[in-house]
Amino acid sequence: MKQKLFFQSSLPRAGSTLLHNIVGHNPDFFVTPTSGLVDLMLGTRIGYNDNPESKASSPEEWQAGFLGYCKAGFDGYIQALTDKPYFFDKSRAWGPYYSLVEMLIPNPKMVFMVRDFRSIYSSMEKLFRKNPDIDPKIMNNIDMTGITTDQRVTHWANTHPVGFTITKLHQCILDGTAQNFLFFKYEDFCKFPDEHMKKMYEFFEIPYYQHDWNNIRQITEENDVVHGIFGDHKIRTELKAVKEDYYEVLGNFTCNRIKNEYKWFYDYFKYR
């Protein structure tokens, strides 16, 4: 039986690692940490675009060769890592490149975790406060300790990973790509996990697996030093609703500004 590839493309600090580790309890699933598979696909595309021999071939041959190479690469990547029937790959870049993935895998199944932006920025701010003396190179070469919380939020909104992911999500909503995703709101997922997981298994068109919400083991491992202070990929062992403290962490002015600037997000996902 051919192995099935599923995708997760979520906002940062929105429960993507938690979801992946929960799914990984299903013995039929292999789940990745933050994956480089999408970058291998994009790197191949760049190579094909820059290669003189590829440019000299007909457009039809170019496309057929590129897609065939990527399909074989996907299969080889999965088979080298596991013989399990289901492979769940996690990267924030999958969603923005849905149309390209669709050329390789018809009707690709992508799950997208979202979270109130105020909570995302609050989570980042709390991580920053735990690590105020971090190497400034990891902070995109800016002295984050010398500016206000509101200025830090503005900086994160315009840089990777938050700015990139939010911008790409907005574009997916505007061009209609988002209608192909299965969206989970992190806040609702924590309150009603069974309901959400049943939706996911139905979306994947595979049998449901009953998960234990009081005994969540860490399955994926990542070297968080690579990601800097925002690479906190440790998960809780028990799933429960989280306390929203963004007003206390960010302040009224910044919270209200976030909600006004991202009205499209709050309207689309029906956040209060």
Q: Your description of this structure?
A:
The protein is α/β, with parallel strands linked by helices and 272 residues long. The chain contains 13 helices and five strands. The protein has a five-stranded parallel beta sheet with strand order 2-3-1-4-5. Helix 2 runs antiparallel to helix 4 (59-81).
Note the run of SSEs as H and E: EHEHHHEHEHHHEHHHHH
Helix content: 40-55%
Shape: globular
Major β-sheet strand ordering: 2-3-1-4-5
- DSSP summary, beta strand count: 5
Rounded to the nearest angstrom, the radius of gyration is 20 Å
> What's the overall average pLDDT, rounded?
87
What's the number of helices?
13
Poorly predicted regions are 136-141
- Major beta sheet summary: 5 strands, parallel
Strand content is 5-15%
- Amino-to-carboxy terminus distance: 45 Å
Features:
272 residues; alpha/beta; five-stranded parallel β-sheet; 49% helix
Outline the secondary-structure elements:
Elements: E1 4-8, H1 16-23, E2 29-34, H2 37-50, H3 52-56, H4 59-81, E3 86-90, H5 98-104, E4 110-114, H6 117-130, H7 149-157, H8 162-174, E5 181-185, H9 186-191, H10 193-204, H11 246-250, H12 252-261, H13 263-268
Parallel strand pairs: 1-3, 1-4, 2-3, 4-5
Helix pairs in contact: 2-4
Short note summarizing the structure:
This protein is of the alpha/beta class.
